[in-house]
Amino acid sequence: MRVQVMIRLVGVLTEGGVPVEIRSFIDTDGEMLIGALISAAKMLCAAMDSGEVHRLAFRDNTLIVFESKSGYTVVALVDKGAGYAESQLRIIAEEIDNSNIPDADGSVTKEHTVIINKILDTYVKHDIAINLEEVLDRIWPPLISQIGTDSELEQILERVDKRTETTGLVEKWQKLKSQVHYSMEDALEYALQGRFDKACAASIDSKNTLELTFAIKMGTLALQMTETSAPPLSELVMRVDRIKADNPFSSAVVALVKFLSREIDSRDYSKFLRKAADIFKFRTDPPSLLQSFVFMDGRISEFPEFAGRLVDYYQKAIPVARAYIYSIIDRNEIFEKLYSVSSYDDFKSKMGFYKGRIQGILSQLSSVLDEKAGISSEPVTYIKMALQSSLQLQNYITLLTALSESPVLTVSERKEVLEEVLEIYWKYFRSLLRLNIPIFAHTVDSVFQSLSVACAEYYRISTGEGREAHLEYIDEFLTDVSLVVHREWNKTQIRLSIFVLINAIGPILARVGRISHSELELLYSAMKQYDSESTMSLRESNPSAYMTNVGNLMVSIAALSTRIKIPKEKLHIRIESFRTALAVHQWFVSHGMVCRDDIMSVTFLAGQILELLDRSEVERVLKVSVALNRIAIQDYTEYDYELAMMGTPLLLLLIQGSEILDEPIYSHLANDLLQRCIGAWRKYGFHEKAENLDNLIQQEINNKKGA
């Protein structure tokens, strides 16, 4: 779970509140707001001793002020997540105190600004200096060529290449069309059942504008589902050209197809959807029902009041659509509640509500799964059940996974939650997938993403035979994902978030030195579908999404490269993929986005390439890695269980760094961290974890001494 802190401003002031450097990410009210903040900081400074932190409510934000020992004041303006920002300010203040800057006396010279800017450059990166396309050109082709030198791994690449040469989507669609004849009565009935592919086939040849609008919408829904015989996007584009877009509903569907074919962006499409929402009458006559399917779209969450009315409208009219819209609203509410929770006790009553609701779903699903076993047909009840229950499962699994990543759970509570996630997937969702019943692709994608995170998190808690069994679980899970990708390869609108998945699991497999064939197959498949132009367009329009894509891709490649035998002339693959991933998280933190799982992965990867770097870069990597972990954990005492969960990669990195640099500060830091981690594991009843960690670190230290 990436925590959004949203830092709007960071600055350093000298004595008397005189600014040395202010870095503002605020688009409006810039100068006036900064002036007011400096005045507020001055007042707080007068009442502060070094080492103190003060918070001041300022408009809709919080001003955080921290005084360094050398008299400098570090300030930040955030709109939430003040604890993470406070950790960042502490680190900046410590860096100032450890530098050779003169004590604060109210003066600001070039010496002051040079030192402060150098420090801030490490932790406050505003510009995006990463060109993903150029980085990939340098690291991906040589990595693939190196993988190809292993005959077993080369067969995996060849299998994926052969898959991309085959088609089948058109043939399946033509077969379905030959079996379903034109009938708007049947088309509407199919839609009510959730059989959007058949609804499309039964109406796609209509000459009526409303009916053709409905048919094209059905086609787009079928394209975004698994196990459907969907029309190719090219056919929908052709049909759209025949529509007279003379009303908001037809215009919205035309815009949807243009969005899917990348002629317009999401914001333009949303404008057309909004116009249709403004005139919809909420009637239940057939024409209104046909029109209403236009709103089965995730972007409907941008219009919350209208979405709420849709849920009531769909309650009796179209239960499948109701489940779809409700799941979107419910998902947003889940995250809103989670981000406001400060302790698990605060959330237990809400958790009870979600548990009670899901038990009914699981009970119904269990009986249907037992009944469906051995039945080859697809009765309407199974399809509707699969669609509606899968949406509920998706949200519940998302809730549990997000909760397991938050700092409100102790290790014991986290283990219990993660085990529930793994069981629900294995017992219910996996069984649902194997029925070959249509499910929304975004549901499958969401569950796969959640499972990848849960698998990685559970590995960090498990030990001994349990850990080995869990690694087998991971292999089976990756096989499930690979099967879905293989079946849906030619359906252009199904693009599973494979980079997100491998970003979570790849570093775990790298830690144990395993190459999963499914992992390689998935990563290679994702790279064959990778759209450079679309990704690069996000660089200016949506920097956060762009950097997320960069980070996921670089961690995935870096983790795989650690398990491939790479000759000396190709070691730049490991180094550059790591450097890029580290730069991404420096950017994230400077913009107030903290992802603990990715920080653990980057810390682990740092240890894989540290010996390849020169001394100055080793120092920088250690400094940044320690800072990222401190910011993510916030407080070693209050969140000691988080320290235990995150500690191993950092411990190994510190031991390695102290050996390379021969500086006792890192060995002292490692020893302190080790004792805290061992103490936390024992405190929460994980004595085997404590013993295993102690043995691992002692073995690492002995290996270094022996070398």
Name a few traits of the molecule:
single chain; 30 helices; five-stranded antiparallel sheet; 7 strands; 69% helix; 707 residues; mainly alpha; two-stranded antiparallel sheet
In terms of topology, how is this protein built?
Blueprint (H helix, E strand, L loop, with lengths): L1 E3 L2 E8 L3 E7 L5 H17 L6 E6 L2 E7 L5 E6 L3 H17 L11 H14 L8 H16 L3 H15 L3 H11 L4 H10 L2 H6 L7 H15 L9 H8 L7 H13 L5 H14 L6 H7 L11 H14 L1 H21 L4 H29 L7 H26 L5 H23 L7 H21 L2 H24 L10 H14 L5 H13 L2 H10 L1 H19 L10 H19 L2 E3 H14 L5 H19 L6 H22 L2 H20 L3 H20 L1
Helix pairs in contact: 2-3, 2-27, 4-25, 5-22, 9-10, 9-11, 10-11, 11-12, 14-15, 15-17, 16-17, 17-18, 17-19, 18-19, 19-20, 19-21, 20-22, 21-22, 21-24, 21-26, 23-24, 24-25, 24-26, 25-26, 25-27, 26-27, 26-28, 27-28, 28-29, 28-30, 29-30
Description:
- The strands form 2 sheets. The protein has a 5-stranded antiparallel β-sheet, sandwiched between helices. The chain has a two-stranded antiparallel sheet with strand order 1-7.
- The chain is mainly alpha-helical.
- The protein starts with a strand and ends with a helix.
- Helix 19 runs parallel beside helix 21 and helix 25 crosses helix 27.
- It has 30 helices and 7 strands.
- Strand 5 and strand 6 form a beta hairpin.
